Amino acid sequence: MKQYIFGILGLMLIAGMISCEPNNPYDLGPVYDVAGNLEKDSVKIAEYLETAEYDSLYRIHDPSGVVIIVQEEGAGSRPFNGNLVYTNFVGKLTDGTVFDTNIQSVAEENGLHEEGDEYNPFPFYVVSASNSTSSGAIYGFSLGFKRLRSGSKGVIIIPSPYAYRDVDREKIPANSVLVFEVDFLGMD
Predict the structure, then answer these.
(1) pLDDT for 121-156, tens place per residue?
(2) Which residue range is the domain that position 112 belongs to?
(3) Residue 79: exposure state from Cβ atoms within 10 A (0-12, 13-18, ≥19)
(4) pTM of the model
């Protein structure tokens, strides 16, 4: 019986030592602080809105932290999860730097045009947070477009947790608030 107890204690000791190994494969590093970044971004967005000059019919401050500035109200309905939305857009940083667009003239003006680029309406699926990676766009697009009617024009300001978080992209620094000027063309 003593050998059995010593064997179990030995296995527990080995398991404890392995779980404390500094190269633990289950240690994925620090967890992204969504709440903390939303708080920081809400300050950035408030400062941006103080100086940004947008003509608007009204503004929606979504509980998620996304801000929607409606410039022209569409006559269509609002999309819901699963709808395929078509839009033209200009993506900017809060300093005005254009980082992406599907409008050729804007791409050419901002040095984004490359030979062979096609400029078509951008399609993406409106999704919920649980399947946000399957939409074809950042999750902030779904949050913003759910508040717009088809046919609307406006601006969607997206906090970093609903965009690229703490990942540096080619033209987008980590933890950036993104500003999208959008033309909601329609949906399926």
Answers:
(1) 999 999 988 777 777 899 999 999 999 999 999 999
(2) 33-187
(3) buried
(4) 0.83
